[in-house]
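Dear support,

I submitted the protein below through the web form. The confirmation email said the job was done, but the results page showed an empty box. After a refresh the structure appeared. I'm attaching both so you can tell me whether what I see now is the final result or a partial one.
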Amino acid sequence: MSYQEFYKYRNHPLAKEGYKRAKKIIHFLYFWYPINRNFALYRTQLKIIRDLLSLEEEILWHKKEIDKLRKEASTIAQISKSNLTDQLKIEISEKYSRAKEFEFNVQILKYFRWIFRYIGDGVAWRAFGYNREIIRALSDKQPVPFISNPQGLEKEMNFFLAIRKLGSSWLPVMHDSTNCLRTADFSVFKKGKLHRIIELKIRKSSINNEKEVLHELKNKREIRQQKRLNDIFDFLETGDLGKLREELVEGRSISSEIPEFHNFEYISNAIRNARKTGYGFEEPERGLLYLAWNFTKYDTNKIIEKAVQQFPHIFNSPLTFRSFGPCDDEKPYGLPITSMDMRPNHIIDLLFGNISVITFLNFKCLEENSKKLGIPLSIEKGNGNLRFYVKTNPVGEIREGLLDRLLIEGLSMNSFFGLINHILEEFEMKRSGELN
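What the results page shows now:
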């Protein structure tokens, strides 16, 4: 899914209604969150869940209509195959045409299911205090559809409501109301701290990161689910990425308590200017440029020409660029724009592509900035691609995930180098035996 899909649907009545609902939820979340955190996160989820339930009912109804129309058309064709008149052919064609209209409606409804859950991602990141490690752990699984059977839904809703009744200091997060939380059913917070991760389908819950004994569970499915939770807790304790995926064995997740600073204010300024004049530029740090524009008013090439004229140092040596927008389902652990500290109208602009934003990063400026901070960064070309290295002993490579935080998450360049420096310090401590 991506915000670009909205332009296939934007003039459809279902899309207009979905857009209106999404705007209301985002405005509610951003208005109430600074005032009453738990209230905002709980009530936002409630709104999301109700909209998701409504969408599921509509999707089910449309699918039934599609099957009905196809069967009717097929029946007419079979009964009349020896005497298929022009009138019957028109009738069959109309039924198939109507079925295609319903199929298009289902696409729109599924798109907004993703949108509402993407707003839910913003709830989840806030609830977890922007803890990337646990978001990554809980997201490292294939995406799942919303709850599909009524019994499971009733059980989850009753649990969600019951947790909140314990008091205002309690906050349940329903994983099915998000795109990014794909393991277990609920995370429960008390006074802002994670209290439990719960899988309702398992007869026992994981309490305060305690691991269940696998042989006490009742069936193979429960054993698989609990093993997955146990692996997650092992990852959170050790940082061993191999606990999440076999291909990541020996990889290590580096957590940092260093405050991270983002360029959200500058991105918002660029969007604000694009709303007023059609385009806007912001360069918060030399070599890092945000370009925002309304592509319905301005041709992309003309806007880039203006950027080249105004910021020649960005474009006179090798660079990279990425569109700044919603993270896709392949990287559900990326910071969602619905959790970013910007005006709600600007979040809506980014989410639905009303305003497009591109991040440009000049490699020469990146290297120069790294040298000023004493970080031996080197950018080299190999196999047709540019690769980023830190010239330590041994040499360390900066992978795409870390660079993404600079390009599509609004991380400041100084914070980016701060993270690299922290990784180098942890590596040195581990090598010297000070860090287990």
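Response: this is the final, complete result; the empty box was a page-load delay. DSSP finds 14 helices and eleven strands in the chain.
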